[in-house]
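In the current project phase, the collection of sequences with tokenised folds has grown. One resulting record follows, to show the layout:
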Amino acid sequence: MCLFCKIINREEVGYFVYEDDNFVAFLDKFPAVPGHTLLVAKRHYDNILEMPNDYLSNLAKPLKIVSIGVMRALKADGIRILTNVGRSAGQVIFHTHIHLIPSWSLSYPSGYENFIARKEQPKEYYEKTARIIKEEIDNLLKLQLI
């Protein structure tokens, strides 16, 4: 079983911010920036190009919800949405996932001044960041803003 399947099945630690019938979102273990989140298919497909069209069509709504939630929670003014297909493209985990990487015109938001990119962060980072993103997503869904 792959690492993401184990995280989805709660056999490995994951800091979840979203879940529906087809997708989950959790924080990247080695984030590029604060709030770097992964939107992951619950069913195992090696990459997005292997997903059946009917399953792929369910991607738009959680992609929008989680992206907006990440941006609002981290006070980002931009976000990179990307997926890697194949080892030569930089894919490391062969399970469909999309990186949601917030960006800022100036600097990281308050509270993240000591962030070190692509390193495992202190547990407090994951707990705090997952909480604020999840709260923002829950508010968006509750208020039906998306």
